[in-house]
Amino acid sequence: MEGLISLKSSPGTSLRSFPSFNQPPNSFARRFSMDLPLRRSSFPAIRAQQPGTISPKEEEEEDALKVKEWEVGMFQNEVAASQGIRIRRRPPTGPPLHYVGPFEFRLQNDGNTPRNILEEIVWHKDTEVSQMKERKPLATLKKFIENAPPTRDFVGALKAAHSRTGLPGLIAEVKKASPSRGILREDFDPVEIARAYEKGGAACLSVLTDEKFFKGSFENLEAIRNAGVQCPLLCKEFVIDAWQIYYARIKGADAILLIAAVLPDLDIRYMVKICKILGLAALVEVHDEREMDRVLGIEGIELIGINNRNLETFEVDISNTKKLLEGERGQLICQKDIIVVGESGLFTPDHVGYVQEAGVKAVLVGESIVKQSDPGKGITGLFGRDISL
Ligand SMILES: O=P(O)(O)OC[C@@H](O)[C@@H](O)c1c[nH]c2ccccc12
C-alpha cells in the first residue's frame, strides 16, 4: 500500500466489525467489478440533484452512496497497488463527511500533488472524462455506434505489412507535442501528415487525442478518418474508463491503447472484452517485466506494445524491448501468437533492426518521422529503404 491512504485499526475495534474491509481486495473487487471502470457513472441521478431540493431520506441515501463510492475508490487503489501499479487513479482524499467506520485515516501525500507526469495526466483525465460523460452519456454513444461504419482490421494490416516487406509493420504516429519533447512540429496539419504516412508505406496510424499534454484531439482522429485515409487508426489516449472506448469508436478509431501502468488486471480484462464487442483492437502497453507478466496472464490479448520510454521518468532505452522478450516470456508470446509492437525512441534503420531481432513484428514511431518536412520520406529514412513499394 505504498503511498496510498493508509488504514489503521482504531483501538478497541476489529477488522471483523466491518465486513467489506474484512475481505481480501480481490474478492472486494469481484463484488464491485462492474463498478470499477464505469464507477463515476454509477449514481448519475444523485449527481444531478440541486442542493437543498432533496428530502432527509434522500440525503441519507446520498451520504451512504458517497461512503460506498469512497470505499470502492480506496479498494481500487489497493488492488492496483497489489499489482505493482504506482499510479493512483485520482488525488487522495479523506473519507466523506458522514463516514462512520472503525478506522483512523491518514493522508500520506501532503498537498495531493501528483508524483509524476503519468499520474498528473491520469488525474486530469479523470476530471475531463467525468465532464465529457455528463455531456454525452453512454446510452447516447451506444445509439451512434449502431449506425457507425465497420472498423478496419488493425492487426491484419500489421501482419500484411510485415509479410509484404519483411520488416516490422509501421504504426506511424500523428503527434504534435509531448510533455518530454515539447512541440515536435509547428506547422501541424494532421490530415496532411496522415496522408504522407500512408503514401510512405505505413501499415497503420496512431493519432494522439489527449489535448492538454500532447496537443492532440478527437477532432484530428475524426478528420483523418473522414479524409479517406485507408490505414486503420489507433486512438492514442489515456484510457481510465470504458466510456472512452465507446467514444473512440464513434470518432473513427479501429484500435485503442490500454496502459498497464495505469490499469489493474480487472480493468484490462473488462476493457479488452469491450473492445472485442466494438470491433476494436486493443494495444496493451507494458514497460517492465512485472507489467508484461500481468498482461501475459490475461486471456484474449492479441497485441502487446513494449514502451521503451518510461512514462513516469521519460527515460528512453530501446534495449527494454529486448529485455522483455528474452527467455520464457518470448516463448509464451510466440505460443500465444501475440504480435509485439516496439514503441518509442526509434530513429534509425539500426534501431528498427535491433528491435526486429529482439522479436517485434511491428513498431510505433512518432518523433523521428513527424519532424521531417516530408513525413513520408521520413519513413524511408527510418527503414533505410522505401517500404511503400
Ligand atoms: O515519438 P516516439 O519516441 O517515436 O514515440 C512514439 C510512441 O511510442 C509514444 O508517443 C508513446 C508510446 N506510448 C505512449 C502512451 C501515451 C502517449 C504517447 C506514447
UniProtKB/TrEMBL annotation:
EC class of the enzyme, as a word: lyase
Keyword tRNA-binding attached: no
GO MF annotation: an example: indole-3-glycerol-phosphate synthase activity
Ranges annotated as biased composition (Polar residues): 7-26
Reactions that this protein is recorded to catalyse: 1-(2-carboxyphenylamino)-1-deoxy-D-ribulose 5-phosphate + H(+) = (1S,2R)-1-C-(indol-3-yl)glycerol 3-phosphate + CO2 + H2O
GO biological process, one term: L-tryptophan biosynthetic process
Listed name of the protein: indole-3-glycerol-phosphate synthase
Organism: Gossypium mustelinum
